[in-house]
Design a protein that fits this description.
There is one protein chain. The protein is mainly α and 272 residues long. The chain folds into two domains: 9-72, Helix Hairpins, CATH 1.10.287.70; 74-263, Up-down Bundle (Four Helix Bundle (Hemerythrin (Met), subunit A)), CATH 1.20.120.80. The chain has seven helices and no strands. It has helices at residues 17-36, 42-69, 75-108, 133-156, 160-186, 196-227, 237-263. The radius of gyration is 22 Å and the shape is globular. The mean pLDDT is 89.
Length: 272
């Protein structure tokens, strides 16, 4: 009787995945450093670490899903899961602050950097037309924000077909965004190396593109779970977290479009 649960919290049993995940992450980043320094074993250590991280994510999150189905995610636990997701998104905001900081430091004070010739964009740089593919991608992401909201509202009102259709539409829009950005990168008139404009452009937009890819995978998992009958109007944190993440990606892109593409390339010759 002393072990009878008399609280709303879920006390986790001992689990091996935190230790396995930490070891895999160490191998992943250690292997990346070794690979960058031309160590012959670097790529193998990196691949082993990446595999370990993927296995850990799959197994650990599968445990979380099983806990939810078992009724362990009480209202208090769900609230704390939401707090955790909010803090995770806040940490991601700080990543983007770093990239924006680098961009604005170079673009707003070009006279302090000889490498840019005292002007921004630097002399000789031909920029992408912000009202071509970047504007199209902006419209695509804004539309994807409405479709994921449609899916969310459909779930809340018990419309599972609407949930699935909204998720499918959002996933397709996310894949379209990634494809267009890949095409844009291939045909960009400047390179990552050799100039601060290219470095800040590709780091800021590329990091966002990585988030779009992660968010798309997140939504695909939600779609697979929806097909299996998971999520209810009262318990659907997994989907809610994916929707929050997707809206975060949308908002960051709006800042990128206005600052990097439109303002950051103002006055420079346009490619094409």
């Amino acid at each position: 009787m002393a072990s009878t649960k008399n609280h709303d919290y879920h006390i986790l049993p001992p689990d091996q995945w935190p230790l396995i995940g930490a070891t895999a992450a160490l191998a992943l980043f250690g292997g990346a450093v070794m690979w960058m320094h031309a160590n012959p074993y670097g790529k193998f250590v990196f691949a082993l670490g990446a595999l370990g991280v993927i296995v850990t994510m799959y197994s650990w999150w599968a445990n979380v899903i099983r806990e939810g189905k078992a009724g362990d995610h009480t209202p208090v636990v769900q609230l704390h899961l939401r707090y955790g997701m909010i803090l995770f998104i806040a940490s991601e905001v700080m990543f983007f602050v770093a990239w924006f900081w680098a961009f604005f430091s170079s673009s707003m004070f070009p006279s302090a950097m000889e490498a840019v010739g005292g002007q921004w964009p630097p002399k000789g740089i031909e920029v992408l037309d912000p009202f071509g593919f970047p504007l199209l991608n902006t419209m695509i992401l804004l539309c994807s924000g409405t479709t994921v909201t449609w899916a969310h509202h459909a779930l809340i009102h018990g419309d599972r077909e609407g949930l699935k259709k909204g998720l499918i539409a959002t996933i397709l829009l996310g894949m379209l965004f990634t494809s267009i950005q890949a095409y844009e990168y291939i045909h960009a008139p400047f390179a990552f190396k050799g100039n601060i404009y290219g470095a800040t452009f590709f780091m800021a937009t590329g990091f966002h593109g990585f988030h779009v890819l992660v968010g798309t995978i997140f939504l695909i998992i939600c779609l697979l779970r929806a097909q299996k009958g998971d999520f209810t109007p009262r318990a659907h944190f997994g989907f809610e977290a994916a929707a929050w993440y997707w809206h975060f990606v949308d908002v960051v892109w709006l800042f990128l479009f206005v600052s990097v593409y439109v303002w950051g390339g103002w006055g420079a010759p346009v490619h094409g």
